[in-house]
Give the backbone structure.
Amino acid sequence: MNIDVRKLKYSGLTETEFEFCYKPKVNILESLNSASCDQISVYGTLELHTDDVYVDLTVECAIVGECARCLDTAIYNFKESCEIKFVRFDAGEFDYVYKSGVIDLTDAVNDVILTNLPTQILCSENCKCLCTTCGSNLNKENCKCEN
């Protein structure tokens, strides 16, 4: 997910819109048990300010995994927007650095996802869980044990 800011600068523009779709090369969702994300959509605007570049971006993806309560398939629609600053020279611990006039959004997008992931995903907010005694999925059937 690279954006060549030199082309933007040479065209006389200071702002542009962008849109990318990509499949992550590594599973960035390791913290959610067996969750996966097939495609991530990233879009937004990029604005040049002297040597700094400000990116307003939105990240969207459908996270598919096991419900933390009943173990059925659960889908969490992730959507997060933020502003990120890229600098030409390393200025601080939390800055993203760009080199040779090219911004690579990959690390920033992965960081947005990782810092905003839910701790668990649910099949629905009203999930009734599994019976702790017999293991019946209480969303699908009534428990047959005494609990």
User: Anything to note?
Assistant: The chain has one domain: 2-116.
